[in-house]
Amino acid sequence: MKFLTRCILSGSALLASIGAQAAPTASGFVTTSGQSFTLNGAPYTVVGANSYWVGLMGLSTTQMDQAFADIARAGATTVRTWGFNDVTSPTSTAYYQLWTNGTPTVNTGSTGLGNFDNVIAAAKAHGLRLIVTLTNNWSDYGGMDVYVNELIGQGQPHDYFYTNSATQAAYKNYVQTFVSRYVNEPTVMAWELANEPRCSGSTGTTSGTCNTTTITNWARTMSAYIKSIDSNHLVAIGDEGFFNEPSSPLYPYQGTEGIDFNANLQISTLDFGTAHLYPVSWGQTSDPTGFGVQWISDHATSQKTYNKPVILEEFGVTTNMTGTYTQWYSTILSSGLTGDLIWQAGSYLSSGATPNDGYTVYPNTSTYALETEHAAVLRARK
């Protein structure tokens, strides 16, 4: 605690210089060097927020600009956002893939990838890089279960997404269209295979045969596929960072969801590791803050063991945010974890407040101020 307090005080002096810098023009691609990210030969700090909604709510370019401005003002460098929305009938807001009787069509029009072009332009205007996630484990905005329902049959096991030849071909088709459009766009920092892949999804229906090997094999195949069509951008899974230690008394360490963080981190076509942190949702209610400290430290240990960057790319509590995040930020700094992205950014737009799931951090709050202080210190870390 004392460590972060000292860093925050020194960080205040850094904010003016960081805020005064003009938003850089996106040039060059973010790469990795050992446990660090680099850009044009210099260190690149991944710090910022999630904004899954920015390309999905039918926002105007002016509203997108404000959303990214609010994130950039907190000292962010990076934003994670959704590059998917599977629908079975057209919608008035943005969607990226339309399914009709088992046939998918990627929407390249103004409500599809044309809309995502605007997301990239707005991020670029504020000097931000994007981590773009290409499907969802959950039913929000379509995701894996749409592939399964449309190609295998309604209500079939969720985990068939990872092994069925038809779902794999359809996913590759979507990825090929989306990724190829932005191969030469440096505003994209990285592609992610999926948001929080697990053996089970929103329906809870599984085959009973899915395990950590299932998802590791899928991640190896799909990350290699993206690398085959795009050698410019980094690739990650987008998973929660669950460990595979069956004897552990702690659920997120037991490997029961099909994720083996350490095995996945060793895949050669994955450039960095990701971890999420929601201790209360995971049943760690007795000391969620302390659990988070251990979780961050354990992922930093894996980072050092396998010599790849690891970021805490989602994290959140709904009570005592400032107190909890103060300790978690201190641990990120002291452990050497490569970077972090909070869940989630919020803005007050002309159309109203952006989605608030209880974790949202809006400008002019104490948590937003803490984010700003932390970003300054992390960016100054050597």
Descriptive report:
- With about 375 residues, this protein is an alpha/beta fold.
- About 40% of the residues lie in helices and about 15% in strands.
- It has one domain (about 1-15, about 35-380): TIM Barrel.
- Strands 11-10-9-5-4-14-13-12 form an eight-stranded parallel β-sheet. Strands 1-2-3 form a three-stranded antiparallel β-sheet, with no helix packed on it.
- A hairpin with a 2-residue loop joins strand 15 (about 350) and strand 16.
- Its main location: secreted.
- InterPro entries: GH, Glyco_hydro_5, MAN-like.
- This is mannan endo-1,4-beta-mannosidase.
Helical fraction equals 25-40%
CATH architecture annotation name: Alpha-Beta Barrel
Gyration radius, rounded: 20 Å
Number of domains: 1
Number of helices: 11
Strand fraction band? 15-25%
Global outline: globular
As for the CATH topology, it is: TIM Barrel
Label the structural class.
Answer: alpha/beta
Termini separation comes to 20 Å
Task: Please describe the structure with a list of short key phrases separated by commas or semicolons.
382 residues; 16 strands; alpha/beta; disordered N terminus; 11 helices; TIM Barrel; globular; eight-stranded parallel β-sheet
Short description:
By secondary structure, the chain is α/β, with parallel strands linked by helices. The protein contains eleven helices and 16 strands.
Describe how the helices and strands are arranged:
Blueprint: H1 2-20, E1 30-33, E2 36-39, E3 42-44, E4 47-50, H2 61-73, E5 78-82, E6 86-87, E7 97-100, E8 103-106, H3 113-125, E9 129-133, H4 144-151, H5 160-163, H6 165-181, E10 188-192, H7 212-229, E11 234-236, H8 261-265, E12 273-277, H9 288-306, E13 310-315, H10 321-335, E14 339-342, E15 348-349, E16 352-353, H11 366-380
Helix pairs in contact: 1-11, 2-3, 6-7, 9-10, 10-11
